[in-house]
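User: I'm curious whether this sequence folds into something compact or stays loose and floppy. Could you predict its structure so I can see for myself?
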Amino acid sequence: MPTRAQTNAKASVLRAEFERQGAQSVEPPILQPAETLLDLYGEDIRARAYVTSDSLLGEQMLRPDFTVPVVQMHMAHGADPARYTYAGEVFRRQERDPSRASEYVQVGYEVFERDNPADSDAEVFALIAASLGDLPVRAVTGDIGVLMAVVHGLNTTQIRKDALMRHIWRPRRFRALLEQYAGRKPVSAVRKALLAGEYTSDAPFVGARRQHEIDARIEALRVDAAAPPVSEKELDLVGALLKVSAPMPDALAQLHDLSVDLPAIVPAVARVAERKEALKKRGIDVNSLMFDANYGRTSMEYYDGFVFGFRATTRPDLPPLATGGRYDALTRRLGGGHEIPAVGGVMRPGLMLELEEDQ
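Assistant: Here's the prediction. I'll summarize afterward.
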């Protein structure tokens, strides 16, 4: 196993290379205000982050990643365009998998640029691929924006679309909601009684919800129950989209075929095609580069477009050595109404050294 000194030295080399590409080096504080992260991710983040309390600063989190503080910094006073790099520790609770490190070093490269998003995507991907050198890794790409476009185009209520959008990063819940909206899942006896106004309970109220909030929720359930179901055709098309997993040219052909019946995805598929050409211009072998429509849906909650990852082919037990993607919507949420197209990626120098030792 590499020592901390070796890992830090490798991180310095990677960051220096990103600086040579024009990136400004930044060092966000290790302690971050918890309020921002809780607003972004909800209370779920508590299960994955280390939270502490300060009498003056309030709740704080040990930095779970660099992207959020870098976006906040850029949206407050960054140049346009801008490139940033950083290196340092991040902290993630690993209760589900104690074998994984809860503290590790990350090195990142972030691009904020309006002119050509496809080229920015390709720049970040190609630079990280080059930094991985000859390590035995396999890359996979995806695009969360294609699935988002499908959801926006569904012939159903806005309330249902909003619910599906919230659960795009939770595949099981997303699928369960789709089947519920299509009428494939039976309505529970309790919900039937609730909608009919026949359900009563002597149990005391638990939590912070007030009666008017409960009444509003029941009314929303009634409106939803009266809405027509999502069609079987749309449900099958979403299922077919999520099964797309192939080298990029084949995946694009499948996406183009699906866009005939899913016209809402046409602009998103065009962005995938533009990115493919931009990657090709930067020397990436797009004919063997995998595109998986499901990729990034369980671990990349603020990405809303291009996503990618590199995994070790000889060590399937290792987490990804590098991941990244596009997060335009995050800049809007943290920018007080302003936004700028943004894409970035992070690498784990400790894992890179571990893989080098195996060679």
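Summary: The first strand starts at residue 24 and ends at 25. The chain is about 45% helix and 20% strand.
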